[in-house]
Amino acid sequence: MNVSHLPLRAAIGAFVLNSGLSKWNLEGEAAEGMHGMAVGAIPPLRRIGPGQFARLLAGTEVTLGSALLLPLIPSALVGLGLVGFGGGLLRLYWATPGMHEPGSVRPTQQGVPIAKDSWLVGAGLTLLLDDLFGRMAGKGRGAGRRSRRRGAKCRG
Known about the structure:
By secondary structure, the protein is mainly α.
């Protein structure tokens, strides 16, 4: 893992893990409200009950937050998880009436808390792309060095 990813992964991982833990025992009106917003953006979620949805969301956040905090999990993998999770939140933002100004991506006051989740997508893409391109660059540099060393041996 790239050491420069640690601050980003730790900050986001702690935030997402805490969010999931705070939702773990969510019931009643709180679970119904969260479920209702999600169903408005993604209608097939109607098939899942509010309590089950809250527990599923909490479990997803706990898993993603924990994966971000564990340096053994590749940055590309947790980046992909962040892109998917953040993308779902942005879908919620875009599909929920009153979250953004009509005909614009600019958030309303009501939409600002969810629009802020765009940072999850940006961070996820950064981790994913940096890990993938860093690996490809490393392979290319390593292959070039090996070729030069072999060539030097043959001439010597």
